[in-house]
Specification:
This protein has twelve helices and 13 strands. By secondary structure, it is α/β, with parallel strands linked by helices.
Length: about 400
């Protein structure tokens, strides 16, 4: 049996992760001839399912419209975390405030897209595909398209979803391979045979797909070792589902996996009723998990290689409803975490006195964030992924 050190060395030095015996010959020879790549940048995406209420997350305390529209859901200023004279954070976001102070967290305000859709499924599909046309929502996702274009692939999974949810459309590509993990040691291939180049011959593609599925499971032993190594050490992560998933991502990154994109989902943000306690709990879980993850990466000396972004499919309505909740809105904040972000607030404070059909006005198109991440972080041509040119944001240093 391999020792812990030997297996870690294997993870770092074996780009095909036990799949070399079964991949097509032309790919095997190419991979064997490729030099070991320098440490690459990693993107972690956290999806906040349900529509996060950005108004009560990044609170416009100085806006006269806040008290007007949020009579029951208005958060008291003396119980918030002040950022500027105009903006405060929900008190559950204390760990995020610490990250901002440390120069490692940015908040992009007022993010959305033209002609917003209030359907969870449609709006999420727009964010995940970066396409407004519904006909294109059945195709590839923005990250899948980006990973299809990536040069110098090592043969490892291009993206990994940590969680039991169905793999998001965002990771779906024509050539890139995505896998899902409920937890380390439980590897399963995404139920999608579009994992290799479309120009492979039929028999070659089918053979590869079958063998890749079998051999991918052989990596479970290696991933299980990652879990055993970490479980034997005291964890500083909170005891929440999201924190557990980020802990697992941290384990994989620290063990030398060459996967460039990781994905996790936190659900529960569809707060139509009794919003205050639910929202406070969710934000507490999110902020605690993010802070623990960043601390973990810093302790391992890997924090300069990882960028984390958090998004939700839409924000909530400005006006509260009769059930002490909020209904589906349009724009909301997007969060970015890492040592290379320009920390603090990007954009102007939420204006609740100048609404459009009862909703906040958009300041930034989410595809501007994608364009920034693609070019400035992943070194991938954003126009090739997004289909159009979008002005980048001053989000990264």
């Amino acid at each position: 049996m391999m020792s812990t050190t030997t297996r870690r060395q294997f993870l770092r030095s074996s780009p095909l992760i036990a799949m070399a015996p079964s991949i097509p010959l032309f790919l095997r020879s190419t991979a064997q001839a490729a030099p070991v790549a320098e440490p690459q940048r990693i993107l972690v995406v956290i999806q906040l399912n349900g529509g996060n209420d950005g108004i009560n997350t990044v609170v416009p305390v100085a806006d006269e419209g806040y008290a007007k529209h949020r009579r029951e859901l208005r958060l008291k200023a003396d119980r918030l975390i002040g950022l500027t004279d105009e903006v405060s954070l929900h008190r559950s976001f204390r760990p995020v405030a610490d990250l901002i102070e440390d120069g490692k967290f940015a908040i992009v305000q007022g993010v959305g897209y033209p002609n917003p859709n209030r359907s969870h499924d449609v709006s999420m599909a727009i964010w995940q595909t970066a396409r407004l046309d519904r006909e294109e929502h059945k195709s590839c996702g923005w990250l899948g398209r980006a990973l299809d274009l990536r040069e110098g692939s090592t043969g490892a999974a291009d993206s990994i979803l940590l969680g039991k949810e169905s793999p998001p459309v965002a990771l779906r590509g024509r050539r890139s391979m995505s896998v899902s993990l409920a937890h380390p040691g439980d590897l399963k291939l995404k139920n999608d045979l579009q994992i290799m180049p479309a120009d492979l011959g039929g028999d070659d593609l089918l053979s590869f797909a079958r063998r890749a599925t079998l051999d991918a499971r052989a990596t479970a032993d290696l991933i299980d070792d990652v879990a055993k190594i970490s479980s034997s050490e005291e964890s500083s992560y909170p005891k929440t589902q999201l924190a557990s998933r980020l802990n697992s991502i941290g384990q994989l990154i620290k063990s030398g996996f060459t996967t460039p994109v990781y994905y996790a989902i936190q659900s529960g943000y569809d707060t139509h009723a009794a919003q205050l306690p639910t929202h406070a709990r969710l934000l507490n879980e999110l902020a605690g998990a993010l802070k623990a993850f960043q601390n973990d990466l810093q302790a391992a000396g890997l924090d300069d290689r990882v960028l984390t972004i958090c998004f939700s499919e839409f924000g909530r309505r400005v006006e509260e409803n009769a059930s002490l909740g909020t209904d589906h809105g349009t724009v909301g904040p997007v969060f970015a975490m890492g040592t290379k972000v320009k920390a603090g607030l990007l954009g102007t404070a939420t204006d609740m006195t100048n609404l459009k059909n009862g909703d906040l006005r958009r300041q930034f198109d989410f595809r501007q964030i994608y364009a920034t991440v693609l070019e400035d972080w992943l070194s991938i041509n954003p126009e090739a992924v997004l289909g159009s040119r979008f002005n980048k944001l001053p989000l990264l240093t």
